[in-house]
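Priority: medium. Attachment 1 of 2:
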């Protein structure tokens, strides 16, 4: 461990370029001469493992996972190795072409000319959206109105950003997520049980858009153009989903679901031992809606459906009223790129808007199951506490609670009265958690 990062002792912002170059050279030589992992411990070198120190050393390179791969790493460093309790099915599912997984395929919805469709045709599309959301939690859309040259261009620019020399990327590296835009490897590097094989450029687009000069030149124009299109698509989907729920078309917009949103430009470098780590660990998005543009060539995205990991082939997609679990596998051969657009609502501390069950959907027999909460309260520390204790999934159509334990091993569905649910949630200290499930409408992948 010490050897690889030694040269970073004198690392500071004034000497950023010089130092990075020096270390990269030094590391290359070391890899060439030793053929080892630059001193970062791997599975085969388990003695003297100081995880926190290694995380910090990795973070301080500001070069991300791409930097490790460029330095010629041959084994996955231990900080990236997924503990078997969290994802011990990774290896098994690297080949998800199992018979059971093949039974399912992701619904594909054609949104073409939605504005020009008559009421009957529009209703058919809305039904498809709502059914896919309820039954699958994820769907792909085609004819979504985002031009192909723009989606291709966006993916290419993201790739170029992450493949710039390390010293150029390092200038954007920031773990201070209060800044509008930045580059970072693993937002939760110091909290997660293992690091993801992934780097990210992120940009918060609303409610306060970035100043163009805040965005790296290599991404600037394409990112701004793409974000205009993806926002339009998001608003369209919020409208369809509102209508599908039997609400006014602008209901979800009126409650500010589209008011705050961010773009995450992910890059998954090729990985020497993909069976030991994961690109993105299993999770459910906490946004109201996620629109995901994924790589045209490299697969890896999988959605959990009826306890099976189902591949999401490169194409355009989405979910409803439950936030489906998904993950991205690491892969041996080539880097993978994706752009996730999260409509997360107003997360600002000062925003007092509260979210809870949609009142119009409640009735005498369908009473509220959760108390109201603000997005700010719901996210951050509470979110982590929730993940460490219990995950709750609520599908209003089924009126059932799904309880998932942290070790992902057990899952059961139970019917509860609202009083029982409140008591149980209060006991866990996660009051108000329903905001995820009622509004976390899901993920939409675009190609
Ligand atoms: O890269 C992907 O395809 C998925 C990323 C993702 O799930 C996320 O950012 O929440
Ligand atoms: Fe996600």
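Attachment 2 of 2:
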């Amino acid at each position: 461990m010490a050897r690889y990062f030694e040269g970073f002792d004198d690392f500071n912002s004034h000497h950023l370029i010089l130092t990075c170059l020096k270390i990269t050279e030094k590391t290359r030589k070391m890899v060439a001469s030793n053929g080892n992992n630059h001193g970062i411990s791997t599975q085969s070198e388990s003695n003297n493992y100081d995880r926190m120190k290694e995380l910090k050393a990795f973070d301080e390179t500001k070069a991300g996972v791409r930097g490790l791969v460029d330095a010629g790493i041959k084994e996955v460093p231990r900080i990236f190795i997924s503990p078997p309790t969290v994802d011990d099915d990774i290896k098994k599912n690297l080949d998800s072409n199992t018979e059971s997984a093949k039974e399912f395929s992701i619904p594909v919805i054609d949104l073409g000319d939605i504005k020009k469709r008559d009421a009957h045709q529009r209703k058919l599309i809305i039904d498809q959206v709502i059914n896919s959301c309820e039954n699958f939690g994820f769907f792909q859309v085609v004819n979504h109105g985002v031009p192909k040259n723009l989606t291709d261009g966006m993916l290419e620019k993201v790739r170029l950003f992450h493949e710039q020399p390390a010293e150029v990327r390092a200038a954007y590296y920031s773990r201070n997520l209060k800044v509008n835009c930045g580059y970072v490897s693993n937002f939760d590097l110091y909290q997660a049980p293992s690091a993801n094989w992934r780097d990210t450029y992120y940009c918060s687009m609303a409610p306060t858009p970035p100043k163009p000069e805040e965005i790296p030149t290599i991404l600037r124009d394409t990112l701004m153009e793409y974000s205009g299109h993806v926002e339009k698509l998001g608003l369209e989907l919020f409208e369809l989903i509102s209508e599908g729920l039997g609400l006014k078309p602008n209901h979800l917009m009126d409650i500010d679901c589209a008011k705050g949103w961010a773009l995450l430009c992910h890059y998954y470098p090729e990985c020497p031992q993909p069976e030991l780590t994961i690109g993105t660990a299993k999770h459910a998005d906490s946004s109201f809606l996620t629109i995901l543009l994924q790589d045209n060539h490299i697969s890896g995205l999988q959605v959990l459906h009826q306890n099976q990991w189902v591949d999401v082939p490169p194409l355009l997609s989405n979910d409803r009223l439950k936030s489906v679990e998904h993950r991205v596998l690491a892969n041996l051969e080539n880097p993978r790129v994706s752009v996730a657009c999260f409509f997360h609502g107003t997360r600002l501390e000062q925003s007092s808007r509260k979210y809870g069950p949609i009142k119009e959907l409640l009735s005498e027999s369908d009473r509220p199951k959760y108390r109201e909460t603000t997005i700010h309260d719901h996210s951050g520390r509470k979110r982590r506490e929730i993940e460490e204790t219990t995950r709750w999934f609520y599908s209003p159509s089924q009126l059932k609670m799904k309880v998932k334990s942290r070790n992902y091993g057990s899952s059961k569905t139970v019917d509860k009265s609202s009083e029982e649910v409140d008591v149980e949630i209060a006991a866990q200290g996660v009051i108000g958690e329903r905001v995820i499930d009622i509004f976390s409408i899901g993920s939409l992948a675009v190609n």
